[in-house]
Design brief:
2 helices
Length: 73
């Protein structure tokens, strides 16, 4: 089974992040500060044409498709 990423995740379902592959240390650090790291839970609130809205901890964030694809579940 191939790992899912956020672009393929079902809206409204909670997932555990298995890996984050952005290839950019600064972006990885920023995502970590939001609570987006391996082992953390994340929920796709809704999918949008340009990406998706996710809930991490107590916040909601809009991620573009490229960033959403870099987050494996």
């Amino acid at each position: 089974m191939h790992p899912l990423n956020l672009t393929q995740a079902q809206a409204g379902k909670e997932y555990v992040i298995s890996a984050v592959h952005t290839g950019d240390a600064e972006l990885d650090s920023f995502l970590f500060s939001l609570g987006c790291y391996s082992g953390a839970t994340i929920t796709v609130v809704t999918h949008r044409q340009g990406g998706c809205v996710v809930a991490i901890r107590d916040g909601r964030y809009n991620l573009d498709k490229q960033l959403a694809a870099a987050i494996e579940l």
